[in-house]
Write the structure tokens for this entry.
Amino acid sequence: MSVATISPNGLAQRRAEEKNLKLIDVRTPAEFQEVHVDFAQNIPLDQLDPAAVASRNGAGTEALYLICQAGGRSAKACEKFQQAGFTNVVSVEGGTQAWDQAGLPVVRGQKTMSLERQVRITAGSIVLVGVILGFLVHPAFFGLSGFIGAGLVFAGVTDTCGMGMMLARMPWNQRGGSSACSVSTPTPAAGR
């Protein structure tokens, strides 16, 4: 299935023309709290129910836009909608990163560690522990490192990360709230 996309500037232009435009951010609540598009609604990918979202947001009659950190999860969310029979869904190219880099309005909150970084730290730690235990305790522990390596290869080939999905459900990634958030319109920095 082909996923329709739109650039951040293209979406901003549509938003200026159509104030009730719907944008769903499919990142974790913690990622959303750190920085998000000023008019986005947060529904994490692992909690996304296309039928429920479509009924609340009128998908099918009006386009529903989806965004994440860099575009991967929003494309998966679009595919989820398409498989459920809703075809009027569009992924924002480059995600929130591209939106922010374009100098478009965002809401900033408390800084958090990205899900991608959490996966790298967790996978690296498990591999390191497996190697150390393999040398110091028993060679069978090398299998732990091999298992994580195989999982990373699988994640790269299928663009599906089981460890990322598991980490997204951890309590520190479920924090939400907007008490510390403020709207900012960044000015493009030199060399950006």
The CA atoms of residues 102 and 188 lie 7 Å apart. Strands lie at 4-6, 22-25, 35-37, 41-42, 64-67, 89-92, 106-108, 182-184.
